[in-house]
Amino acid sequence: MNRFARVGRRCPVRIDEMRPVALFTAFACILASFSTSLLGETGNVPGGSLVAWLIHVDVQHLVIDLLAWLIFGWWLEPRIGSVRLGAWIAAGLSVSICAHALLYPHHGVLYGLSAVAFFVFAAGLAAGPGGLSVRCTACGLAVLAFVLAHELATGGVTPSRALLGGEALGERWRLLPVRSGQVGPQPVPLVHVVCAVAGAGFGLLARMRRSSRTHSLVALIPHPR
């Protein structure tokens, strides 16, 4: 038998285990953000909101979003599958665009991965994949609630941005140039809240469907008389 075939049989790697959606999303955010910086884009993003969520305002914004995304996405994707993660990203993008248009009609487009990430995080925690314990779910939701409460109380400043130097560091490493006289990027904490609540609803729906299938399978098992 071929040596590589033996290795392949001993260490099979499924597509889901490679985290293609989580890694591709992170790579796309890096590419889009730095391409925008190099091209000198000032807000007229080709494709509008469908592309703008991949673009980040500054390096700090990009790093904070990607660290959270990769840590949670790396854990979540093998447990729910790449197709479901992709569907949740699409749903989160749709919810975030609609919520942004309704809650902040005076804004332009919505930049950054954070709104979609809030949707996916809440959905993953509520769905409880891979035997996630009730305690872990409660802790995760408590952290999510704390971040959202902090954003609402401070007008949109995340705890991590507050610890890392606030806007001063962001201005030094800006990726999205702003023309003189233009209003710069503004925080949108209400969009994050709406996305988190909607994501939790999606996750609970997935948990209920999984529980229903489990009960159906149990009912099919013949019981001894």
Short description:
The chain has helices at 3-10, 20-39, 49-52, 59-80, 82-103, 114-127, 134-154, 159-163, 166-172, 189-220. The protein is mainly α and 225 residues long.
The CATH class designation is Mainly Alpha
Order of helices and strands: HHHHHHHHHH
Class from helix and strand fractions: mainly alpha
* Through-space gap between termini: 50 Å
Task: Tell me what portion of residues adopts beta-strand conformation.
Answer: under 5%
Query: What portion of residues is helical?
Result: 55-70%
CATH homology-level superfamily:
Rhomboid-like
Rg, nearest Å: 20 Å
Number of domains: 1
Give the overall silhouette: globular
Q: Give the tally of β-strands.
A: 0
Residue stretches low in confidence (pLDDT < 50, at least 5 long) are 1-13
Can you give a write-up of this model?
The chain is an all-alpha fold and 225 residues long. It has a single domain, classed as Up-down Bundle (Rhomboid-like fold), CATH 1.20.1540. The chain is 69% helix and 0% strand. It has ten helices and no strands. It has helices spanning 3-10, 20-39, 49-52, 59-80, 82-103, 114-127, 134-154, 159-163, 166-172, 189-220. Helix 4 packs parallel to helix 6 (114-127), helix 5 runs antiparallel to helix 10 (189-220) and helix 6 (114-127) runs parallel beside helix 10 (189-220).
SSE topology:
Blueprint: H1 3-10, H2 20-39, H3 49-52, H4 59-80, H5 82-103, H6 114-127, H7 134-154, H8 159-163, H9 166-172, H10 189-220
Helix pairs in contact: 2-4, 4-5, 4-6, 5-6, 5-10, 6-7, 6-10, 7-10
